[in-house]
Write a structure and sequence with these properties.
Chains A, B: One of its GO terms (biological process) is glutathione metabolic process. Two copies of one chain form a homodimer. Chain A contains nine helices and four strands. Chain A has 233 residues and is an alpha+beta fold. The first copy, chain A, has two domains: 80 residues, Glutaredoxin; 129 residues, Glutathione S-transferase Yfyf (Class Pi), Chain A, domain 2 (Up-down Bundle). Chain A starts with 5 loop residues before the first strand and ends in a 12-residue tail after the last helix.
């Protein structure tokens, strides 16, 4: 790692940006912070696309002259490039790694899509001066609620498992928690009525603090006080 | 591998099922074929969910008593479990592996979602005795067409790259091609107007035949003859 600069491009309002930020900070991996303001569309400029990430998204890295997007791909790259990365993030043990991988693939079209779609619609629509369609809000809410119920039931086995891959915290937990934090900002508390999910979120937070709270500080500014962490209903 | 049976659950009408099928067959990995008929909802039974895959989906594997879902997680698991798996599928070289990983993460909400959504709506709606909404067809078609254009431009660099990760075929190509084959079945030829994508599809097919054609035989039965492979418009 030492011979080449690792530049990390991120926005702490982006869920996977927070997950990788927590991993980098907690692991004390030397890197250069390159914040990108999504609200100013800094990620959409021709320059950003040509020199940083051809997809115009964050998070992404530039390591020496190697550019890489997709947070899960970056996690795997760092696990090979940084021999000092603590094993728990992406365990080398075969079955534990497979379970972490299974979650990291599964989440794209479930937890990730469901929470992001609800957040984007409910939070962004009024900001754009448009009216919310109550039927659409309810459809997105139900879709997300079903996904969160499934997460609690299948991945946490209703509290029998401490973390997604078993007894140890991994990157899968941090990515999941960062995603599940997001709809709070749109007034939805994912912990309400889901005590095992709430307890798991607190475990992930405790296991990664002070970086977890630091990463979520900006998000919580936009979150109704009564549901911002660590208050659990 | 030898000491424990590897059972592969799949349906060749499922895009990622075909990709893993091609990998297993071409690599001569010993495994037991366990076909699951999605059209008969065999994947939705309580027994299937309890004993095979808790998410009720294919593809998935049971290796000894270890159950694993998500085709990309299975690829990675097999790359560790099967030392004889040819390197090109999931290259060990760091940067090539990162590029394959980047595609495998990127595709979930782009090529995978776009092609599958078009196929499911256009193909399934009439089978369910319902009428297609032309505006929805057009919206899904445009979304998919934009994704395919982006794939050709960014991943194939308009033909400058032979394969997704560079000069060598990898699992990323096979997964992408199996997905891009699917909308043909609903009468849409992804190769039309995209000569570099068409040439790449043929390279993927040549690089994995006879398994590619074998895996697609059932799909092509439902595909209008004039756009079934290998005829390229």
């Amino acid at each position: 790692m030492a011979s080449r600069a690792l530049k990390y491009y991120y926005d702490l309002l982006s869920q996977p940006s927070r997950a990788l930020y927590i991993l980098l900070e907690q692991s004390k991996i030397p890197y250069e912070k390159c914040p990108v303001a999504l609200r100013k569309l800094e990620n959409r400029t021709t320059e950003f696309k040509e020199t940083i990430n051809r997809f115009g998204k964050v998070p992404c890295i530039v390591h020496g002259d190697f550019k890489l997007a997709e947070n899960v791909a970056i996690l795997r790259y760092l696990s090979r490039e940084c021999p000092d990365l603590p094993d728990f993030w992406y365990p080398r043990e075969n079955l534990a790694r497979a379970r972490v991988d299974e979650y990291l693939e599964w989440q794209h079209t479930t937890i990730r899509a469901q929470c992001a779609q609800y957040f984007l619609y409910v939070w962004m629509t009024p900001l754009l001066g448009m009216e919310l369609d109550p039927a659409k809000v309810e459809r997105l809410r139900k879709n997300m609620a079903d996904g969160l119920d499934l997460f609690q039931r299948v991945w946490l086995e209703d509290g029998k498992k401490a973390f997604v891959a078993g007894e140890r915290l991994s990157y899968a937990d941090v990515l999941a928690a960062c995603e599940i934090e997001q709809p709070k900002c749109a007034g939805y508390d994912p912990r309400e009525g889901r005590p095992q999910l709430a307890a798991w979120m607190e475990r992930v937070r405790q296991g990664t603090n002070p970086y977890y709270d630091e990463a979520h500080k900006i998000l919580y500014k936009f979150t109704p006080k009564e549901i911002a962490t660590p208050t659990v209903k």
